[in-house]
Design goal:
Blueprint (H helix, E strand, L loop, with lengths): L2 E5 L6 E5 L10 E6 L2 E10 L15 E4 L2 H27 L5 E7 L5 E7 L7 H11 L2 E7 L1 H8 L10 H4 L9 H6 L6 H4 L14 H7 L9 E4 L2 E9 L4 E6 L2 E6 L6
Parallel strand pairs: 7-8
Antiparallel strand pairs: 1-2, 1-4, 3-4, 3-5, 6-7, 9-10, 10-11, 11-12
Helix pairs in contact: 1-2
Length: 262
């Protein structure tokens, strides 16, 4: 079985499909079967047999390598989706709907037209959907997304200087809690622990398990404890290296938790 990673937009998320008996070079465009219908995408990777940890039985198929006619249809869909986005904004203004549209896209077979939008509250968009359906004569789906999804769709660069995780490789965004920032002894400064979406950084979840393991038995800052140098107050901790500093008789001493104070 040939398993290929396919992306539907430049630097977008990668979804995996069964290539069946096709031999497809990287960067070649293909037509794939998805839950939404046929889609036009580009092959960006091929999985090795040893990497196949996916449920292969649930994978949708790559239908064919895209032809010149397919590519022309794809370009037409992009053009029409852009016009549809403008029309949706126009109608939402007429209906006084508080919606911030992010993008619009047709499936390759034009059986569905999807709009992603962001709003602070729930929006009754039934009339808007009817007006759009009367023009485009296809199934209209309006999807209200959260701040994280908005960042994923728009993309950008994080405080680390790299492309946003959510728009590059994350296919599923796990919940992130403030306790993760506390576990990692980070300053609870929104500018340091929040991402472009204004929510907690997704990457706080990556090493949380390791921080929890390393913090076992570690004292908290401000704790008064006995040390080989006498009674002292903890002034800082280094969780991953399992060491901390204490002030004993106005002197700063460094303690390694796994050692015996020497």
């Amino acid at each position: 079985m040939n398993i290929y990673g396919v992306s539907f937009k430049d630097h977008g998320k990668v979804y995996y499909f069964n290539g069946q008996n096709l031999r497809i070079p990287l960067r070649v465009t293909v037509i794939v079967d998805t839950e939404r219908g046929l889609q036009f995408g580009r092959v960006v990777s091929k999985l090795k047999q040893t990497d196949m940890k996916l449920d292969k039985e649930s994978l949708k198929n790559i239908i064919r390598i895209a032809t010149k006619k397919d590519y022309e249809q794809y370009l037409t869909n992009l053009k029409d989706a852009k016009e549809a986005l403008g029309k949706a904004k126009e109608f939402s203004t007429e209906l006084d709907l508080q919606m911030n549209f992010i993008d619009a896209s047709f499936t390759f077979d034009r059986k569905q037209l999807l709009f992603n939008f962001y709003a602070d509250e729930r929006v009754d968009f039934r009339e808007l959907a009817r007006k759009l359906a009367s023009i485009y004569h296809t199934r209209i789906e309006l999807r209200q997304v959260g701040a994280r999804d908005k960042a994923s769709n728009i993309g950008g660069v994080g405080i680390c200087g790299r492309e946003l995780c959510c728009s590059s490789f994350l296919s599923h965004m796990d919940s992130v809690s403030m306790s993760m920032a506390k576990n990692q002894n980070l300053a609870l400064n929104p500018s340091k622990i929040n991402g472009c979406c204004g929510r907690l950084l997704c990457c706080l979840a990556y090493e949380d398990e390791q921080y929890e393991e390393c913090s076992n038995g570690m004292p908290s800052v401000g704790a008064v404890m006995e040390t080989p140098y006498g009674t002292g107050t903890v002034i800082s901790i280094d969780i991953l290296n399992r060491r901390y500093k204490v002030v004993v008789s106005d002197e700063v001493k460094e303690i390694y938790l796994d050692e015996k104070g020497s």
